[in-house]
Amino acid sequence: MGRKNAxxxxxxxxxxxxxxxxxxxRLERGGLAERPPIPTMFRPHLGPGERVLADGGVVLREFCSxxxxxxxxxxxxxxxxxxxxxxxxGAFAAARAVGNSRRKAAAASxxxxxxxxxxxxxxxxxxxxxxxxxxxxxxxxxxxxxxxMEVVAPGVSMLSGNSxxxxxxxxxxxxxxxxxxxxxxxxxxxxxxxxxxxxxxxxGWQQRVTQAGMALPSYGRSELPS
Length: 226
Hints:
With 226 residues, the protein is of the alpha+beta class. The chain has 6 helices and 7 strands. The chain has a 7-stranded antiparallel sheet with strand order 4-3-2-1-7-6-5, with helices on one face.
């Protein structure tokens, strides 16, 4: 029989937040070298002394449309003769109208702007930025290319920056979204209100860590709000 009141398992994202706090503590107070770097099949190249700190899945979303609103209008004609021919002809016309209506609705939906996935793969977060690994290749991002960032939901950060195709605004969905945010904020915008108020930490995180039987990082015990 199982134990009564067994500790609840910590989710992958909550565990990533635990490590994010630990990494930030070590960056501020020393001791990052005690954490083993994440091995990679590529050479990190964003700056001297770079260390890859975490890796996991990622989905990028961009606020855009998937089409221009156009659709193919079916104007084909069908005529059936003989007994029941009129009914068959009418049924075909009705089905064609339904098909046109559905295509029109689908085209309108595609033309509407919303947060749509534009890439997915793995993210490797380092002390100097991050790397997006897709089937098409590896795309590095240095922290200094990010102009603004905020955590908008657990595991989701909104990132603004300058890319090789101009200004971009993405939603970064990953268990390491908070790590990217805190690394950027600590280095380039330490006055960020989410950083100074710890608002980037998901609601109820400390309670879930305690219920899972894990100790809070010392950074959290001494400074995080209860």
